Known about the structure:
Two copies of one chain form a homodimer.
Chain A (H helix, E strand, L loop, with lengths): L1 E4 L5 H9 L8 H17 L1 H12 L10 E2 L1 H10 L2 H19 L6 E5 L5 E8 L2 E5 L8 H14 L3 E5 L11 H10 L3 E3 L3 H10 L9 E3 L4 H10 L4 E2 L7 E6 L5 H12 L6 E6 L2 H15 L5 H11 L1 E4 L3 H11 L3 E5 L15 E4 L5 H6 L25 E8 L2 H18 L2 H11 L22
Parallel strand pairs in A: 1-12, 5-6, 5-8, 6-7, 8-9, 10-11, 10-13, 11-12, 13-14
Antiparallel strand pairs in A: 2-7, 3-4, 4-15
Helix pairs in contact in A: 2-3, 2-8, 2-9, 3-8, 4-7, 5-6, 5-7, 6-7, 8-9, 10-11, 10-12, 15-16
Amino acid sequence: MRILSSVEPDFPERWARICARGSEEDEAGVREAAARIVADVRSRGDAALLEHTRRLDGWQPAGAGALALGPGEFARAWRGLPAPARKALSVAARRIEAFHQRETDAVVPLYRDPLGARLGQVSRPLARVGLYVPGGTARYPSSVLMMAIPARVAGVKTVVAVSPADRATGEVDAWTLAACHVSGVSRLFKIGGAQAIAALAFGTPTVPAVDKICGPGNAYVAAAKRLVFGHVDIDMIAGPSEVLVLADASARPAEAAADLLAQAEHDPRAVAVLVATTERTARQVLAEAERQLASLPRADVARRSLEERGAAVIARNVAEAVRLADEFAPEHLVVLAKGASGIVPKLSRAGAVFLGSRTPEAVGDYVAGPSHVLPTAGTARFDSPLSVATFRRRMSVVEMSPRALAALAPAVEALTAAEGLEGHARAVRVRLAAPPGGATRSARRGGRARRRRP
Amino acid sequence: MRILSSVEPDFPERWARICARGSEEDEAGVREAAARIVADVRSRGDAALLEHTRRLDGWQPAGAGALALGPGEFARAWRGLPAPARKALSVAARRIEAFHQRETDAVVPLYRDPLGARLGQVSRPLARVGLYVPGGTARYPSSVLMMAIPARVAGVKTVVAVSPADRATGEVDAWTLAACHVSGVSRLFKIGGAQAIAALAFGTPTVPAVDKICGPGNAYVAAAKRLVFGHVDIDMIAGPSEVLVLADASARPAEAAADLLAQAEHDPRAVAVLVATTERTARQVLAEAERQLASLPRADVARRSLEERGAAVIARNVAEAVRLADEFAPEHLVVLAKGASGIVPKLSRAGAVFLGSRTPEAVGDYVAGPSHVLPTAGTARFDSPLSVATFRRRMSVVEMSPRALAALAPAVEALTAAEGLEGHARAVRVRLAAPPGGATRSARRGGRARRRRP
């Protein structure tokens, strides 16, 4: 892991390169393959979905009906798990729900303005959403909870999940199905890749078309999500997971190191960055990381991540460390420093902030409460954590009064004239010429003379 | 304009085709040309920006400095406008600001849970945003107000606009600059097309890189926005403007017709749909539209829109009309029916709803208050109006307590075991082994024995 000091003359340039990690763009070959699959599923529906699943996922579904699992299968999987597993899922589900139920809506409460117009912005749940859950040999029950529960709290009626089945057995693992049970997923389809994204975007007789697709996947999934964006909404294009650990001299090196490794063990492309305020702290943390790596089951993955993508930076002081962290805009920001919570007001560009010695990032992955689906690759400059708001939309509501319409007509006239849209002005004038109220056409005869504005 | 009745046997199919209008996908030629321009501006910066501006916009900027306008030019343009024009811009600006200042934030107010953990989600403004304002011979001062004012209310520090200059003069018109003055735009760059999007996404020495790009543009702008999506956020890919007018027997045909024409005059690709509850109303509205077309300056545009994209639907009753409107998910929904405001709770998929006889859609375009930047092409199924929320992001905050960490550790252990991420479990265990608080490393010696969960 490289050590950089912010006082070195070439630091700005080296730091800029570290910050510039990007979500990789789609490779042309991947994009073309994904585009062919998307077009095929869009035009041929279930038949194409079955063919691509057989070809790419390696198991042999008997027919499209064999792709769908529902509440019966979810409940069976739930009952089959040992009690501590059920307990863990319940604890996580309850905490995620409790957190997201406190989320406020971005609305404009309906009000009447001084001219008597009624104005506002109301919020509504999306009707149907689709969640992509990576599968195959891996399992991510926590991702089901972290997406499905905020969707349910938002009021989404139909929450479907897709997840590729195990190649050998054609099954989706029991943890994932139990997570569907506890978080109220409507149905799970045993499909993955670009074909799953296409099915969710355009619908097939078996898979319902949804309004929004969330969740991370491989390169084909990412390419397919970009391709269908606009037909449906997508949450984001997820990059590799990442953490920035900000450590001052009071930080325990073992804790900082453990948080770096917990990120690095995800993926060789995961990014773990340490920003320490003293060289001593930086060296202690790196030494601890070496020590902990010795016995880590996924040490190979973690070591590659640290060597190829990791960095340790020595900042002059906490203020500079905070500025660097905010510039980096990490998915996860762990603050191991005195007065950690006082640092929050100075931060605006992290996915989630984990404050103090008692808050390993791993609790955020499972049980803290806020969804662990967070912006990566520097997109925390503009993206937000997956939340209830992810699954709701707003709608503006306008009801003019006769007085408001008359008072605002001159401004509309002037602006429509500037923009050359006479039809817009006429739509106002035709109302000023008629009496207010739900009058029928014949009532117009009694209306006052048509008024034209200069 | 076609008239369809919902009782006809082929209605569902025909209606589905009307609803399926899409934002057009990028043509391959457009996408490739945009990609070349984006790559060129990204690698060569100002030099490429100048070259493409000279080649595509037709005027000859002396250098990159000649592309930038600032508060001085904005104030000069403002002072040069006649008083009624300044008044109209002020009225619109004040109303847009008053509306968006009432917008609530999607946050989770910080709270302490029963285990003593502190949790919440805070909201922050984006740092820099870029607004695309179509230009050339047309001018859209209202679009400047409708984007820049919500951005300012959101707390965005740097709001830059881009707009192509007039080919002949190299100038941007005074209304647009005056709108920049009244809405607090930081700078305007006289650039357009894919080169402007690339400059905003990646930055050049002259144009600052932004975090989000908003605003509609031509096909090259749309293609470039898709290409840079992920490096920066984009608001949406805007399709042609559209209206659905819902009219019962109480509606005045002249008002319904005027609202259809106000939409159709924008663009031959604009979509104007009437849903009436009686055939008589439908026929009266169409007759009125013909009559009004006779004297409309942009009649050619409006007529093409109505003939090629328009439709009139006869629904059985108001309930069915409301269902059809919601299915269509229009950018603008005009409700000319008795008890119009009672219909709002039944709607969830419109950009903005205009209620009753006194509320022409045109007031929403200029002065009602809510931003007129709205989801088109059916994306109101999932997209929201441009708002303060468009320019803010959320950040989760987690601070565990010693008790919370200990209580939740078993659930983390179980879930990390299920997902095969031992490093995550260790990041929790290393804390349980050490005393809480900002203790230094040496203080650990006094900590209790390392605790392992089963």
